[in-house]
Amino acid sequence: MMDTPIEKEREDELEALLEVTPALAQKRRSQARIILDRFLRNRTATIGASFLILLFLFCFIGPFLTGHTNPNQPNLLAPDAAPSLAYPFGADDVGRDLLARAAVGGQVSLLVGLASMLVAILLGTAIGAIAGYYGKLLDNILMRITDVFLAVPTYLLLFVLSASFTNGSVYSIIVLISIFGWTTAARLVRGEFLALKEREYVMAARTVGAKDFRLMFRHILPNAIGPIIVNATLLVGQNIILESVLSYFGFGVQAPFPSWGSLISDGQGQINTDPKLVFIPGILIFLTVLSCNLVGDGLRDAFDPHMTER
Amino acid sequence: MGRYIIRRLLQAIPLLLLLSIFMFALIHLLPGGPEAILVNPNMDAEGRKALRASLGLDDPLPIQYLKWLANAVRGDFGFSFFTNQPVSTVIAERFPPTIELFLLALLLSLILAIVLGTISAYRQGRFIDYAITTVAYFGISMPIFLLGLLMQEIFSRRLQWLPPSGITTAGMSYDAFNGFLDHMLHVAMPMLVLAITFTARWSRYMRSSMLDVTKQDYMRTARAKGLATTPLLVRHALRNAVIPLITVVAIDFGSVAGGATITEGVFAWPGMGQLFLRSLDQRDFPVLLAILMLSAFFVILSNLLADILYAIMDPRIRYS
Fold first, then answer.
1. By residue range, what is the domain housing residue B51?
2. pLDDT exceeding 70 applies to what percent of chain B?
3. H helical segments located in chain B
4. Among A60, B117, B245, B284, fewest CB within 10 Å belongs to which?
5. Are residue B194 and residue B294 in the same domain, yes or no?
6. pLDDT in tens, A200-259
7. What CATH number is attached to the domain comprising B270?
8. Nearest residue on chain A to B255, judged by CA atoms?
9. Domain check: are B13 and B50 in the same one?
10. In terms of CA atoms, which chain A residue is nearest residue B146?
11. Which of B157, B258, B300 sits opposite A272 (nearest CB)?
12. Per-residue b/e over B114-136, b at no fewer than 16 CB within 10 Å?
């Protein structure tokens, strides 16, 4: 199952060798292929993935189809327009196209979700790898820091931090959310590293003279990638929720960039007269998070066939 | 066991100390101190300075922290900047509604999670399993504030069954029974919102740990000697299957508190969460700090409680 790790020069030699025996190359490629096949066989996960693709198309192309690309362009001739061909989702009280607002809000929400996932995963992987690989004092210090993060209700701390460190820009929100996302990834990666660093192939690579950095990121990390990818997928959904909660309470992304959360917060005042202002972005958040969860669980099953029976 | 508990409590002290330094620094980093919010248009720069000094905000931060700490260890968290009441009084006022909401939701979601998870595991792959799983996915993917808004829309605006927010109907006086009834109607929605969110999460854990347990040999033995389904599940499976759930619940304790804060915000529930949001707005440092430390304390306590429960549920676990 596992290729024996070797020095890069040797690996290159083997690459040449592989061309001679295509069966080996076939086998190597098939690991990813097996996972993909397993994933595609999972119907709910595939539905989730397809929906995410549709959602991206909607957010980035949707406004061009209706011709209302500016989400802040009022149209006083069409206040509170009912859903129609020109305004598929209708318009708000000053005639702003709700589809354009939902789509552009989606761009912001997806950007925040994806970017903060990326930062959090990179940070968590680095910290978890160092803690798990070096162990001892370093591990102890890093894990105590993680404990501090776990001992405080996330939302409370998040509210305080967002009031002091963010200025309502998208980037500050991304940084803030990443600060909270890395702990799970760190603990996952640490656990994997603790188990994997004792394996024979790591010792073999060390014997051939591989340095720490190379061992960590070329040899151990690729074998721990499954749980990281799963965590990353779930994290996108969680981050979108976090962003919407922050925006709902007025700490999140500020105008002129409407995110789904800030659209809900804006629309809440008119929930009695026009509930769709709240529920269009609300349903989009819900569907996005649901899809991320379905895809994440599908990936988990695909990476770890032993879990599939559950 | 007693020694273990004492040791764990002692270990919590440095963690709390570290947290208090961290939070203290964090809170004092908030832009615009209380004097910017305690608006009085007639106050000149001189007066503002005097106000800052009277609130003790002119000392260097470490001195302020040590002063706070010296009082805090004696249970004195200072005075609210805004109401001038002792912080303990302010919190004592807000604590009961929160703990009521919190405990009701906790109890309800634990019962629901255990029952639904068990049914789901026992009927693995059948219709009811898929139905419960689907509902659980919906619950997990729904932001808690959105669920609150949705339920307000359905149950109070459309159906008009339940009051949309608050803790009692304002301006009404009831006798004891109807007052209780009125209160229960108010508590129903926020409690359900919190409970649905956490039931969804925990029932998944319950299901998978129940599946692990039902595959054990002793389950087959019990079944083979002719035990009926209900005592089999309740007496043999449940106790073992609940153990992993305890950890998850303990870990989630902080997020239940966070969820309660959000729920209180949505439903105008006059508890600690609302107090927290308001104090943050007003830069009421003493109250903020006290709430943050209190919640951290409860999270640490819940983790300890989970470990003790562990030992009670599983006699094989011994602490020393």
1. 1-74
2. 93
3. 2-28, 34-37, 45-54, 61-72, 87-122, 127-141, 144-151, 176-214, 217-224, 229-231, 239-267, 272-282, 285-313
4. A60
5. yes
6. 888 888 888 888 888 888 888 888 888 888 888 888 988 999 888 888 888 877 767 788
7. 1.10.3720.10
8. A153
9. yes
10. A282
11. B157
12. bebbbbbbbeeeeeebeebbeeb
| Residue A133 to residue A213: CA distance in whole angstroms | 10
* Cβ–Cβ pairs < 8 A, chains A and B: 112
CA distance B259 to chain A (A): 8
User: CB-CB: which of B15, B31, B259 is closest to A151?
Assistant: B15
Q: What is the ipTM of this complex?
A: 0.80
Q: Which of B40, B74, B108 is the C-terminal boundary of a domain?
A: B74
CB distance B149–A282 less than 8 Å? Answer: yes
Q: What is the mean pLDDT of residues B162-185?
A: 76
Same domain, B130 and B49: no
Would you state the pLDDT for residue A156? 83
Phi, psi angle pair for B248, to nearest 5°:
-60, -45
Please, which residues have CB within 8 angstroms of residue A140's CB and are 6 or more apart in sequence?
A: none
Find, among B249, B256, B239, the residue nearest to B305 by Cα: B249
Instruction: Provide the number of structural domains found in chain B.
Output: 2
**Are A245 and B144 an interchain contact pair (Cβ–Cβ within 8 Å)?**
yes
pLDDT confidence bin for B226, thresholds 50/70/90: confident
SS3 A97: strand
Which of B30, B31, B208 is nearest residue A310 as measured by Cβ atoms? B208
Share of chain A above pLDDT 70, in %: 78
Q: Do A286 and B143 touch (CB under 8 A)?
A: yes
Q: Is the pLDDT of residue A14 over 80?
A: no
Q: Global pTM?
A: 0.82
Residue B181 placed within a domain = no
Cβ distance B197 to B138 under 8 Å?
A: no
- Asked if the C-beta of A213 comes within 8 angstroms of chain B's C-beta atoms, the answer is no
> Do residue B140 and residue A285 have CB atoms under 8 angstroms apart?
no
Task: Give the residue from chain B lying closest to A239, CA to CA.
Answer: B143
Asked if B211's CB is within 8 angstroms of A286's CB, the reply is: no
Domain boundary among B45, B74, B103: B74
> Does residue B266 sit within a domain?
yes
User: Out of A148, A156, A289, whose CB is closest to B258?
Assistant: A156
Per-residue pLDDT tens over the stretch B39-71: 565 666 777 777 777 777 777 788 888 888 888
Same-domain check for residues B123 and B264: yes
The answer to whether residues B286 and B147 belong to one domain is yes
Residues B138 and B223 in one domain: yes
Is B97 contained in some domain? yes
- One domain for residues B264 and B227: yes
A40 touches chain B (CB under 8 A): no
- In this structure, the answer to whether residues B267 and B298 fall within a common structural domain is yes
pLDDT tens readout for residues B89-137 = 888 888 888 888 889 999 999 999 999 999 988 888 889 988 998 889 8
Residue B176 in any domain: the answer is no
Interchain contact, A271 vs B153, CB within 8 Å: yes
Torsion angle of C-alpha atoms A202, A205, A209, A215, degrees rounded to 10: -50
8 Å CB contact of B26 and A164: yes
